[in-house]
Write a structure and sequence with these properties.
alpha/beta; binds zinc ion; 7 helices; 21% helix; 13 strands; 391 residues; Purple Acid Phosphatase, chain A, domain 2
């Protein structure tokens, strides 16, 4: 749960944005994070095809649960965002990944008191964009949540003076001060229209309100036809609709994987935000079993509300190597489940509950022979929990 200060201090979001933008770009003052993404060299081809160089591994950094925009009206909330930018910049500097995945809860929309939460989303992707690294994102349960008026605002100190732009209606500013939350479609539109480095996309309309369900192909730069791996992204719900991966999404995966990878020869790697109920089954209890690898085992798994078939489909496909989720900030383990691995990322953001040290899970994909390796890179630079997720 977010922490709230007892003494609200109003800070205009524009000031916060400027502060964060300068923090994000402190290593290169010439970079303009707004609109100049096309000046960076693309390491991959556009559309849904990622390329890796022959003989070089393809490295992915997972940024989970950044929670930008938490308690923006306090003095400590915006500082959390500055610290989250520093975590991402450190990880990007140390690992130099080819690709970044934003694994949901990029923003704490239920704390964001401006009309368009994309401004905070934009800040969250700014360290990756500033380094010219392409990325993809999925939604978490906080990303499209409507604003929740804090109880503390109704105490003797009163509701803070809100900065509402003047509207054209007789009730000036009414629309812009209603803070209804920014929809998944609006957030996705803003990310993809303003960033040539973004590989995120809306999934098929038949899957909505689930939006971020799509697939990317990883192939060799020398041969875009030959796939090295398929990366599948799922919207696991939450916020404006239940926390679930629907049977329609499971069916979509079944059909899509049969279409693009009919003999299941190409490995498949899966990403979504909220752990499925299967995570509860393999979660270490009492003591850490030998077959799980991680460093924090501090919580019960907060699983999706229902299981509607996705795990049966994934578990029945030998090409599926691993699933990666965020959501539980106090868990960072990988445990085997059937013939695949279920993994948590690592809490990357200073926003969101928990004070466990921040870091990011890294994936390394090698081709010929295929291997999927993972470890966690911490904010202080050290590495741990290395595990081979393919064999
Ligand atoms: Zn979270």
């Amino acid at each position: 749960m977010p922490k709230f200060s007892n003494s609200p201090l109003i800070i205009q979001w524009s000031v916060i944005c400027l502060f964060l933008i300068s923090a994000a770009n402190s290593d290169d003052p010439q970079l303009n994070i707004h609109g100049n993404a096309q000046t960076f060299a693309l390491r991959t081809t556009p559309e849904n095809n990622l390329r890796m160089r022959q003989g070089s591994p393809f490295k992915i950094a997972l940024f989970a649960d950044l929670h930008f925009g938490e308690a923006a009206w306090t003095n400590w909330g915006p500082l959390q965002d500055v610290n989250s930018v520093k975590v991402m910049s450190t990880v990007l500097d140390k690992e130099n990944p080819d690709f970044v995945i934003y694994l949901g809860d990029v923003i704490t929309a239920n704390n964001i008191m401006i009309k368009n939460a994309s401004l905070y989303w934009d800040l969250a992707v700014s360290p990756t964009r500033a380094k010219g690294i392409p990325w993809a994102s999925v939604f978490g349960n906080h990303d499209d949540a409507p604003f929740e008026w804090p109880m503390e605002w109704f105490s003797a100190t009163g509701v803070p003076q809100l900065q509402c732009p003047a509207g054209s209606t007789s009730y000036a500013g009414g629309e812009d001060c209603s803070f209804r939350g920014t929809t998944r479609l609006e957030l996705m539109k803003s990310e993809t229209e303003h960033n040539t480095l973004s590989y995120s996309r809306n999934g098929p309309q038949t899957l909505w309100p689930s939006v971020s369900s799509y697939v990317l192909k990883l192939s060799l730069s020398s041969d875009s036809e030959a796939a090295v791996a398929y990366l599948y992204f799922f919207d696991s719900g939450g916020g404006s609709y239940p926390e679930v991966i629907s049977s329609a999404q499971a069916k979509w995966f079944q059909q899509k994987s049969a279409e693009v990878n009919p003999d299941a020869r190409v490995p498949e790697i899966i990403f979504w935000h909220i752990p499925s109920k299967a995570y509860k089954k393999v979660a270490p209890r009492f003591s850490v079993p030998n077959n799980c690898i991680g460093s924090i085992f501090m919580e019960d798994v907060a699983a999706q509300e229902a299981e509607m078939g996705i795990m049966r489909v994934l578990g029945g496909r030998p090409s599926v190597k691993a699933v990666f989720v965020g959501h539980n900030h106090g868990l960072d383990w990988c445990c085997p489940y059937k013939k695949l691995w279920l993994c948590f990322a690592r809490h990357t953001g200073y926003g969101g509950y928990g004070d466990w040290p921040r870091g990011a899970r890294i994936l390394e994909i090698n081709q010929q022979p295929f291997s999927l390796k993972s470890w966690i890179r911490m904010e202080d630079g050290h590495l741990h929990s290395e595990v081979l997720l393919s064999s």
